[in-house]
């Protein structure tokens, strides 16, 4: 059955307003004027659609902190309309009473450009047509792709994704073409979370839009591409790294959001235990030596190095970095972007940097023997060198360097401290509650030699603040290995990894796993999270 527009009631005159006001006042409702509102909940209104707003004389005007949508209605007691709109937007609704003329004004403001909003957000999340796996994409000309990229649906969709990602504190946006739709996922607190899929027919326009913004070749869809774009989102400058890779249904895009405003680069904010932090600062202030940070991808290694650089940065020091890519711009520090395609590798860049009279050098990552050898020799010749490695723990870093072919005498002479780290999710303080660990967790901890029977542990129940996840934000857990004389002696004597670890633990080194258990006992994270990450 087709919806028919109902003519809005005449403006509420003195007599009419008095009668209606008496009825609505009994329900605690007050008349809300919309004409002084500078902006409305446009993205929510698009989900509802202009036709539905007109038919029910209702319009979304705001979204509260807990996600509740404020709905202005000519008849706020129309529960049928409220239920219909609630089902469309899948959010809680709070109604306010407004003059029908104000409702018409708001609807006209939101939907004034018919071309811009011909596709509502509701259409975007519906599967309307299938695309055959064998369909060729080459038939789209570059001109058509450019047109699609500037069409309102693609522009609105990409902008909405970016705004929502910032609001959700996402670090990555995944746009993944599937057989019937466009899958959307955000990485929030290190874990991917799925959002409603988009209509498959938006695929070409959305991908072309992102590629144009990131200065990528929109005509090339057979090989991976990487680019970068800077946005100003909700008043904040945000760098977005874009990566594409061809798939059987089209190009998958990952947008890495680098929001420096949401990350502290203060060394004191890393959550490192006080005594270890004092020693780390001493090593960072040294005139030479090497400071290595290790861990898997996404464990916060670069943030730790940036925090160290921020701590030591001063006009008296020449600090140069070589990174791939440069994630954040640091004032007063010379940063070099590695470009392997033109021969500017970590190793070649490092050689050139050492001719630039540096005091401190940061190498984004030690990937091979050549880079490791140059970095270690630089640490032995009066430079402080900072870098990262992909290893599971601090002691394993030594073994990794030995396997690369680095002489053990160079390792013990150059490295001053190794920091291994992970990022774990923090329990939401709004819904934290004590729990009894499951039998599986008790058995696992028992096998690790950890007694969890004498402590209280917690988890997040799930609330509107954390979107039901039970977690809000992340923090680091660290394992630090300082190169004490006894450790150096064991390395020279070709001791095994287990022997070096045992000696390090006698000197006070706490493993990442045990550091995580300590934080769980403090009620900062969960045992499940420690098992998952550490």
Write the layout of secondary structure elements.
Layout: H1 14-25, H2 42-48, H3 50-56, E1 58-63, E2 69-73, H4 79-89, E3 93-97, H5 100-110, H6 121-124, H7 142-150, H8 152-167, E4 170-177, E5 181-188, E6 191-199, H9 203-213, E7 225-233, E8 236-247, E9 250-258, H10 274-284, E10 289-294, H11 301-312, E11 319-323, E12 334-337, H12 346-353, E13 360-363, H13 369-380, E14 384-389, H14 394-404, H15 408-414, E15 415-427, E16 432-435, H16 439-447, E17 457-460, E18 471-482, H17 485-492, H18 497-506, H19 512-521, H20 527-533
Parallel strand pairs: 2-3, 10-14, 10-15, 11-12, 11-13, 13-14
Antiparallel strand pairs: 1-2, 4-5, 4-9, 5-6, 7-8, 8-9, 15-18, 16-17
Helix pairs in contact: 7-9, 8-9, 12-13, 13-15, 17-18
What does this structure look like?
The protein is an alpha/beta fold and 534 residues long. The chain contains 20 helices and 18 strands. It has helices spanning 14-25, 42-48, 50-56, 79-89, 100-110, 121-124, 142-150, 152-167, 203-213, 274-284, 301-312, 346-353, 369-380, 394-404, 408-414, 439-447, 485-492, 497-506, 512-521, 527-533, and strands at 58-63, 69-73, 93-97, 170-177, 181-188, 191-199, 225-233, 236-247, 250-258, 289-294, 319-323, 334-337, 360-363, 384-389, 415-427, 432-435, 457-460, 471-482. A seven-stranded mixed sheet has the order 12-11-13-14-10-15-18, sandwiched between helices. The chain has a six-stranded antiparallel sheet with strand order 6-5-4-9-8-7, covered by helices on one side. Strand 4 (170-177) and strand 5 form a beta hairpin. Helix 12 packs parallel to helix 13 and helix 13 (369-380) crosses helix 15. Mean pLDDT is 83; it is low at 1-17 and 113-140.
């Amino acid at each position: 059955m087709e919806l028919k527009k109902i003519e809005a009631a005449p403006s509420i005159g003195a007599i009419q307003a008095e009668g209606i006001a008496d009825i609505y006042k009994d329900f605690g409702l007050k008349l809300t004027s919309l004409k002084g509102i500078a902006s409305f909940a446009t993205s929510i209104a698009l989900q509802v659609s202009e036709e539905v707003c007109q038919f029910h004389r209702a319009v979304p005007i705001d979204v509260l902190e807990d996600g509740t949508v404020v709905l202005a209605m000519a008849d706020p007691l129309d529960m049928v309309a409220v239920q219909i709109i609630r089902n469309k937007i899948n959010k809680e609704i709070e109604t306010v009473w407004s003059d029908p003329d104000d409702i018409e004004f708001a609807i006209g403001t939101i939907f004034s450009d018919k071309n811009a909003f011909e596709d509502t957000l509701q259409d975007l999340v519906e599967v309307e047509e299938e695309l055959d796996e064998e369909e060729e994409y080459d038939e789209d000309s570059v001109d058509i792709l450019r047109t699609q990229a500037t069409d309102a649906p693609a522009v609105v969709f990409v902008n909405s994704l970016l705004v929502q990602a910032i609001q959700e504190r996402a670090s990555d946006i995944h746009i993944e073409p599937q057989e019937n739709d466009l899958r959307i996922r955000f990485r929030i607190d290190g874990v991917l979370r799925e959002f409603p899929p988009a209509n498959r027919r938006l695929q070409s326009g959305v991908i072309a839009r992102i590629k144009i913004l990131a200065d990528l070749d929109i005509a090339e869809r057979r090989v991976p591409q990487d680019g970068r774009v800077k946005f100003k989102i909700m008043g904040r400058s945000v760098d977005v790294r874009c990566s594409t890779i061809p798939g059987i249904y089209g190009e998958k895009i990952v947008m890495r959001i680098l929001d420096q405003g949401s990350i502290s680069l203060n060394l004191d904010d890393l959550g490192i235990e006080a005594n270890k932090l004092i020693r780390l600062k001493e090593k960072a202030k040294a005139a030479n030596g090497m400071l290595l940070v290790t861990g898997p991808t996404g464990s916060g290694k670069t943030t730790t190095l940036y925090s160290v650089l921020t701590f030591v940065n001063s006009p008296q020091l020449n600090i140069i970095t070589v990174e791939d890519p440069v994630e954040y711009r640091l004032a007063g520090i010379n940063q070099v972007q590695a470009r392997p395609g033109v021969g500017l590798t970590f190793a070649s860049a490092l050689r050139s940097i050492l001719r630039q009279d540096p005091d401190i050098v940061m190498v984004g990552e030690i990937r091979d023997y050549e880079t490791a050898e140059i970095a270690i020799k630089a640490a032995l010749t009066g430079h402080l060198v900072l870098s990262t490695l992909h290893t599971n723990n601090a002691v394993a870093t030594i073994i990794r360097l030995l396997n690369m072919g680095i002489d053990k005498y160079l390792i013990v002479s150059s490295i001053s401290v190794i920091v291994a780290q992970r990022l774990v999710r923090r329990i939401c303080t709004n819904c934290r509650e004590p729990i009894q660990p499951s039998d599986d967790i008790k058995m696992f901890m028992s096998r690790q030699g950890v007694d969890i029977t004498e402590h209280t542990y917690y988890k997040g129940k799930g609330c509107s603040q954390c979107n039901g996840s039970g977690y809000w934000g992340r923090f680091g857990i660290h394992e630090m290995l300082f190169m004490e004389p006894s450790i150096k002696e064991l390395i020279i004597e070709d001791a095994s990894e287990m022997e070096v670890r045992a000696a390090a633990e006698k000197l006070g080194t706490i493993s990442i796993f045990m550091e995580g258990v300590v934080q769980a006992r403090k009620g900062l994270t969960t045992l499940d999270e420690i098992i998952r990450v550490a």
